[in-house]
Amino acid sequence: MRTGWLTEATRVISAVAKRLARTLFMIFAVSVLAFIMTDMAPGKYLEEIKLNPQISPNTLAALRAEYGLDRPLAVRYLFWLSSAARGEFGFSFAYNCPVWPLLRVRAENSLILTVTAMLLSWALAIPIGILAATHAGRWQDRASAVSTTFLLATPDVLVGLALLAFALHTRWFPTGGMHTLTNEMELFPRAQDFARHLFLPAAALTAGMLPTLIRHVRSSMLDVLNSPFIAAARGHGIPAGRILLRHVLPAAANPLISLLGVSVGTLLSGSLLIEVIMSWPGVGPLLLQAVLERDVYIVIAAIMFSTLFLITGNLTADALLYMADPRIRTDQP
Amino acid sequence: MIRNKKLWVSAGALVLFQVPVVGASFFAPYDPAAQNRDVPSSPPTSVHFADWRGRFHLRPFVCRWVGDTNSSGFPSSHEDCSKTSSLRFFVHNQTAYNRQVLKSSRHLFGTDGTEKLFLLGTDEYGRDQFSRLLYGGQTSLGAGFLATGLSLGLGLVFGCIAGYLGSWVDDVVMRTAELFMALPWIYLLFMVRAFLPLNLEARQAFLLLIGVIGITGWARPSRLIRGVVLSVKERAYVLAARGFGVSHVSLIRRHILPEAYSVVLTQSALLIPQYILAEVTFSFLGLGVGEPQPSWGNMLANLQSYYVLKAHWWMFSPGLVLLPVFFLFYSLADSLQRRVQIIDLVN
């Protein structure tokens, strides 16, 4: 193109800036929404303490002032914003420390789990989906259809509990946590131990994701396989493997990349429950505990983390689409 | 058409599935909250035809269960066939349970003596798991249906408003919808649930849960309905009706909404299982409907204890019963979607 890379670059930059601005606005809106809800909530952390006769009203009032709970909503929101700017994201009543250090460890663990599950499920879904699409109507396709339907109908709770029962009966896998509680370990056994702990939760999450992914891979592959240009390629005598890899896969990639972005949300929701069932020390158990204890700032921070993660997933998918599809590069800003 | 056959088969099977749940007070032999502390955690009662002398009985009978503790100190139970009760159909006994949809003092089956038939065993309080399963279905399926009604209702209202009025109203509604869809779904539910009271009476918790699930789910249906409204709004017959001076409300009601019918139907087939699962998940986590009212979620929560998970396989029944329900709903949604596509192709 004669217009040159400069216009192209400005267009990309302005598009990215637009997306970033929208993301920031979205996160801001989520935090405001969460704050308004905390204010409307009937239960507060200190209300539960009030029931304890050993704590005097004076202490309560002092605590209330210390945490800034006696201020109006807008002031509290500003306080929270400034603590977010300091990288604390509020204060946990139950743990008596800033939220961010708590959340960071949990978020890392959750990310390890979800990223593993995501890689695992795509690594399984793509070959199975391709196999089903190339053998459409034959036994391979039917077997995958039956098993995906079965998996689709199985709720996450049941998958988690069944895997846990399996681990209990066979004793092949540990039934919770991330590490065995011994610190004297070499690097390799340590990694092995970690992998053994990771396996069951990751498998449960993968089982939840697989059916949707396989179905989408199969249908988008079929769409391309039935199109005229593939028939033409076959007519030219191009070998089947080459057609599949060089012609079908790139053409079928677009809807799958969009699905990648969407699947982050599903994965996050699924991971919350699986983490609780399998006692994986991720955001899930922390959030559940915080909800039960009315530790509002942890709840707000956890929700913002999940929103951020989801939006990042969508942005990554868009960036990948931009790289994969030349039409998007030229058509849209 | 073959597709239609699948549609009607899954719809019919779903209706059949609801019958024992809705009519739980007839189909369930016992009160779901009644405890039999003498037989905690007993496996499904076995039905005998031959007694201990080897004599054959035409009418099957059950033996007495005696509770004791096993070697590791956990409750267990064994059969004692010196005392038996025969099975009968349409037995009469009053249940004290008051949260019923339809009341009946006659039950499909039961025993004529003091020995009880626990079709799916008992939980740790000795409550009949089968009865709890049926009554729990009222909670879980009921929550799914009602929450779907609520969120589709909200979706219809907001979708119509946004699509019909357009301009800034449309912008505001759709940006808000985007905000709701930007959050991962369970996190959104958690957020709303986090700020509502925790210790609730079961009926309040049930209504609250329906409210939370229904309200957080309005965004997607309202977007779809908005799309339908936008496209229908410009059709010739709607413009003609408007030209004749039909009021806005009746224009929406008579000319625009009927077009959204298929979207609403397909969405409800997709949303109901999702919302049933939401109820199950929340009650499982202890944030939804609590004891003593049974729900498939809080029944599954028993499995969180080591011994139950390891040894009491019959406690998996509320999870297993979800499989056919979800399967039928998905196949219903699938065939509805195909039908809509075919109709679109024809038009």
What does this protein look like?
The complex is a heterodimer of chains A (333) and B (347). Chain A is mainly α and 333 residues long. Chain A has two domains: 2-92, no CATH class; 103-331, MetI-like fold. In chain A, 79% of the residues lie in helices and 1% in strands. Chain A is built from 13 helices and two strands; from the N terminus they run H-H-H-H-E-E-H-H-H-H-H-H-H-H-H. Chain A has a two-stranded antiparallel ribbon. In chain A, a hairpin with a 4-residue loop joins strand 1 (91-92) and strand 2 (97-98). In chain A, helix 5 (99-134) runs parallel beside helix 12 (296-324) and helix 7 crosses helix 8 (187-225). The radius of gyration of chain A is 25 Å and the shape is globular. Chain A starts with a helix and ends with a helix. Chain B has two domains: 20-125, no CATH class; 132-346, MetI-like fold (Orthogonal Bundle). A four-stranded antiparallel beta sheet of chain B has the order 1-2-3-4. In chain B, helix 3 (129-165) runs antiparallel to helix 4, helix 3 runs antiparallel to helix 9 (248-284) and helix 5 packs across helix 6. The interface between A and B is large, with 49 and 42 residues.
